Amino acid sequence: MRKTSYALTFLAVLPLLIFVSPTATAPHGLVARYDTPNTSVTVRFGLMERCERISIQVPGPNNSSHFEYQDYECRKFPMRVQDKCEKENKIPCAAWVTAQYFTELGVGFAATALVTLLFGVSTHSRRRRVWRAVATLVLLHTCFQLLAFMLVGELYRTRKFPLFEHASPGSGFILNTVSWLAGFGVAYGVIYTGIAASRGERWAAGNRFYYPVRG
């Protein structure tokens, strides 16, 4: 493959890493909102933490003004005692933690793909072979992101966590979807271009195109 193809691949893989990183760290996977006449509670669930914002409005003496109290607190999620992971929520907690591990593995494979691109294009002979490694790493990234999406999506669909009854997909869930959809597209592009270069097609192999030696 030509250097231009690898440069375009690098620019395509980099956003995958950018998209998936917030899903592993920020509490934006699912968002639940509870509203009462004077109280509003917003709970954001991430793969690693749960953040809760409480807003309480107290009417003034003449109902012409009001006092507002807000509190924002984050904690690790899920936790054994607080989220009842040892008994009734054992399976949902295990699935959530597994989704976290899958996302972290996906981040690792995407980062490794970028490093492989940087070190693998130093010589022409390496460029002939490195596309296979890049395609494999991107596919692994995509598959693990898809697995995480399926686990979180199933927990959201079945409402196995009682707190998910009023939840809706957040920005992290959407970014995860974009990541694995785009990942399949990037992997297909790398494989298609790499095979074309191996066949000696000039548009993929560049000016120094070659034909494979058949024994």
In words, what does this structure look like?
This protein is of the alpha+beta class and 215 residues long. It is 56% helix and 18% strand. It is built from five helices and five strands. The chain has a five-stranded antiparallel sheet. A hairpin with a 6-residue loop joins strand 3 and strand 4. Helix 1 packs parallel to helix 3 (124-158) and helix 2 (90-120) packs antiparallel against helix 3. The longest helix is centred in the middle third of the chain and has 35 residues, at 124-158. The radius of gyration is 24 Å and the shape is elongated. The mean pLDDT is 82.
Brief descriptors of the model:
single chain, alpha+beta, elongated, five-stranded antiparallel β-sheet, 215 residues
